[in-house]
Write a structure and sequence with these properties.
The chain has 167 residues and is of the alpha+beta class. The protein has one domain. Helices cover 20% and strands 23% of the residues. It is built from three helices and six strands. Strands 1-2-3-4-5-6 form a six-stranded antiparallel sheet. Strand 1 and strand 2 form a beta hairpin.
Length: 167
């Protein structure tokens, strides 16, 4: 004799309840755990970062329009091209929709380079790389796509320390 079958609605309800229970982490504190690392740049970066390249199209960033900014410690090395970037220096690309030719609309995502300690991580050109979505969630770290592109920057000043662009 076969066991009785549960009604379909009850079976689906139990499945949904089970999946919900599995997705919970059991933390009743009301705080959620971070799904990944924090972005390497502060939320209020526009207050202290300086534009070093104005709005332009980028075939290397999915045809998004980009604007490049440097934090205070990256500004001198980026513009002067005559001093190394200090550890922790940040170069940030704001990425805008292809149709936003003036880069005045909402930021679609960011790509960020953070300088590592001198002599460290030659595989990443001495930088840590992040792609950050519009909700400030890090969606990619040290992507080969970034590193491979910046490896081919050329000789200084265009390829100065892997930055790929004359200011």
């Amino acid at each position: 004799m076969k066991p009785p079958r549960l009604p379909r609605a009850l079976t689906l309800g139990l499945a949904a309840l089970t999946l919900t229970a599995l997705a919970c982490n059991g933390d009743d504190s009301g705080e959620s755990e971070s799904a990944g690392p924090d972005p390497d740049f502060p939320a209020d970066y526009p207050a202290s970062y300086v534009e070093v390249r104005n709005c332009r199209g980028s075939g290397d960033h999915d045809l998004n329009n980009i604007r490049i900014l440097a934090d205070p410690s990256a500004l001198g090395p980026y513009q002067g091209r005559n001093a190394p970037f200090p550890e922790g220096a940040i170069v940030l690309k704001e990425e805008y929709d292809f149709a936003d030719q003036s880069c005045n609309g909402p930021v679609k995502q960011w790509t960020v380079m953070r300088r590592l300690a001198a002599g460290s991580s030659p595989d990443t050109l001495g930088w840590s790389w992040q792609r950050v979505d519009a909700q400030r969630s890090v969606v990619d770290v040290d992507a080969p796509r970034c590193i491979d592109c910046h490896t081919g920057c050329g000789v200084p000043p265009e390829g100065y320390e892997g930055t790929c662009a004359v200011p």
